[in-house]
Amino acid sequence: MSEQALPQPNPALDQRSESDVPLRHWIALLGGMLGAFMAILDIQITNSSLKDIQGALSATLDESSWISTSYLVAEMIAIPLSGWLSTALGPRRYLIGTTVIFTVSSLLCSIAWSMSSMIAFRAMQGFSGGALIPMAFSLVVQLLPVHKRAIGMAMFGVTATFAPSIGPTLGGWLTEHLSWHYIFYINLPPALLMLAMLRYGLDDQPMNISSLKNADWAGIATMAVGLGCLEVMLEEGNREEWFSSHFIIGLTVIAVLSLVAFVINELRHPRPLVNLRLLTNPHFAMSGLAYLILGMALLGSIFVLPMYLTQIHHYNALEIGKVLMWMGFPQLLLFPLIPKLTQVVKPKFLVAFGFIMFGISCYVNTHMNQDFGGQQMILSMLLRAIGSPFIIVPLSLVAMQTIQKHQTPDASTITNVLRNLGGAFSIALIATMLDNKAREHLAHIKASLPSVSNDAWHQLAQQAGHYLQQGTDPTTAMLKAKASLAQSMQTDAYIMAYNDIFMMMTGFLVFAAILVLSLPDAEPAKG
């Protein structure tokens, strides 16, 4: 099964000139990229609207968190299944089918009548969206000759980095000016356009019944249970206080046992769902680790930046969007240049440069204070916008350098799963680290108060004087001043915690740059 996973590259394409790529193949490729863009966009688009959805469906805050969790869990499960299902049903039939499901589930989300129905429809949307992401990548291999694939990968890179950058902004704008329903309605026009593009651009292929009959059902079951429980554990762990919760302990045990069983099954099965033996290739394994760190950086930064601006500076969704756009739109100018650069510079050097720029963008945010707001973040946004395109496209070339053509589908599945897992690990780590570090810093600030008692009393006196001028009695004025000082101390503690998080991300990104540079120059795989 693994060798028949995603649509196989066509050797005849490699001998064709650029002008021989039919227009309809470009149309199909654009349709696939549009699908991936929508799927990635919908991961983040609900984040700005959770409170509105929560109120409309009479749900608690904990229940509303499952709007995102259900999507991510279903998406994570769908990615490894997409290869097998596309082989069994045929790529054209599979892509059109998943697009229809994505469209219908988006419509159902907009008319959800309870939180349970919303979670179910979001899971349906995530499962179909999870298929659209790897299939977009596979169309690059299937439809384009080798010398044109960097262009296709640049197109894929735009979807992978631009969509999450504008997701929260778009969701916030639609919710504020229209209603939360429109974050789902917005999927309908591009989905219909995508259906037309795929129907026109892709050739129909017969169903592969033998692939269904000989499916790796044990691998499918253990993968779905293992990855599903792992994703839920990472998403809900911090809210449940991790291993003090029996729910999280149970999920962890099930995830570990299922994934161990999955690995054993895949190594023994004659037609595994995913060819995990590719990870015994040191070059590909190290590239996979770089993908894991890339996922941590991409989704981690998208997670932490809005959180900082909301918690510290009380930005709304539109104000956050005006900051995040500085790391989204500049990428559109750079991505078209990357394919040409890969022809004159070794891809690993481009990847290392991208990771270093991304790392510098995080380091810029390691010395924040209460005056460090959206305007001060623009520099880091621009640095990230410069770095990201240099990672996305060249890293795919580096990862596939020692992979044979028939192994490309499995390699694509593995890298997509690793990138998503990296994002899940990063969000869980950041959420936990933020609370723990803030408590540590607050304790340190309180412990240092005696040494700065004169300054503290001066601040209290000034603040109390301010309240006295407003007509407050002296006792109440002093109480308010103390409360204000305590709030300022807590804000400082959280800012220090955010500084620590950005320093951690800087370290991971520098490590990724060193990792990629250490990869030996390898001869491209043949066959």
CATH class annotation of the largest domain: Mainly Alpha
Instruction: Characterize the largest beta sheet: strand count, sense, and whether it forms a barrel.
Output: none
- The strand count comes to 0
- Number of helices, where a helix is a run of at least 4 consecutive DSSP H or I residues: 20
CATH architecture of the largest domain: Up-down Bundle
Strand fraction equals: under 5%
Q: Could you report the average pLDDT, rounded to the nearest whole number?
A: 80
Counted up, domains total 4
Structural class: mainly alpha
* Poorly predicted ranges: 1-9, 12-18
Envelope shape: globular
Order of helices and strands: HHHHHHHHHHHHHHHHHHHH
Q: Could you say what the CATH topology of the largest domain is called?
A: Growth Hormone, Chain: A
Rounded to an integer, what's the Rg over CA atoms?
25 Å
Helical content, roughly? over 70%
The first-to-last residue Cα distance is: 18 Å
CATH superfamily of the largest domain: MFS general substrate transporter like domains
How is this structure best described in words?
The chain has 527 residues and is mostly helical. The protein has 4 domains: 1-216, MFS general substrate transporter like domains (Growth Hormone, Chain: A), CATH 1.20.1250; 217-268; 276-435 and 497-520, MFS general substrate transporter like domains (Growth Hormone, Chain: A), CATH 1.20.1250; 440-494. The chain has helices at 23-44, 50-56, 61-64, 66-89, 91-110, 115-143, 149-177, 182-185, 188-201, 209-213, 217-236, 246-268, 282-313, 317-334, 338-344, 347-363, 374-399, 408-447, 453-469, 474-517. Helix 4 (66-89) runs antiparallel to helix 18, helix 16 (347-363) runs antiparallel to helix 20 and helix 19 crosses helix 20 (474-517).
